[in-house]
Amino acid sequence: MKWIHLQELHNFAARSTYMKKIITRLAFLWVLIAATSCENDMEAVMNLDKKAAAVEEGKLINSLYSQHGHVKANLTAPTMLRHLAVPIYVEFNNGLKVLFYDDTLNVESTLTARYGKYFENDANIFLKDHVVVVNKKGERLDCEELNWDSKKQQFISNTPVRISTATDTLYGTGLISNQDFTNYTIMHPTGPFVVQDTTMLD
């Protein structure tokens, strides 16, 4: 039988107490890490939910725009995404079509684009990706980007444009036009174009 000296017994007990403290601290640390990780996971899930809830989706959109009591435009689109994070904005991510009317609700011009976006506190609507405007005379504007100022009832573009008429095709960069696309100016025309001889009209 082996006898344990009192000093050795005391040292063993001290070591055991020390080990218990270490194990207790490690266990507490593990619980703390697990709780923090769980909290972070919950925050991540809640943030994802907030992001998902921050977008409203609409389908088969049909919206009328009026000014001074008169309907000026009718916008239709297959889908619409309304982003609720400030600043609030709306996307037409699958294209849109707008019919512009005169005061007697006759169609003056038609606009189509594959993408549209506007901020709710702004009168400007940004259009891009194969933008086409056709007026009632059949004159057609093609460009990749176009801004529609609904308050001023104007179209503005800073990109290359092409205008097709019954007699000519005009090219250039930059354009400003009224909403019915009957009075337009190409800011920087390029290529050959026909200048009508006014003396032939007399």
Main attributes of the structure:
single chain, 202 residues, alpha+beta, lipopolysaccharide transport protein A fold, 2 domains, six-stranded antiparallel beta barrel, 11 strands
What does this structure look like?
The protein is α+β, with helices and mostly antiparallel strands and 202 residues long. Helix content is 24%, strand content 49%. It has two domains: 1-53; 55-190, Lipopolysaccharide (LPS) transport protein A like domain (lipopolysaccharide transport protein A fold), CATH 2.60.450. The protein is built from one helix and eleven strands, in the order αβββββββββββ. The chain is elongated and about 100 Å long. The N and C termini lie far apart (137 Å).
Find the count of extended strands (DSSP E, 2+ residues): 11
Q: Classify the beta-strand content into a percent band.
A: over 45%
CA radius of gyration: 35 Å
Strand order in space, largest sheet: 2-3-6-7-5-4
Identify low-pLDDT runs.
Answer: 1-10, 197-202
The rough form would be described as elongated
The average pLDDT value, as a whole number, equals: 80
CATH superfamily of the largest domain: Lipopolysaccharide (LPS) transport protein A like domain
Main sheet record: 6 strands, antiparallel, barrel
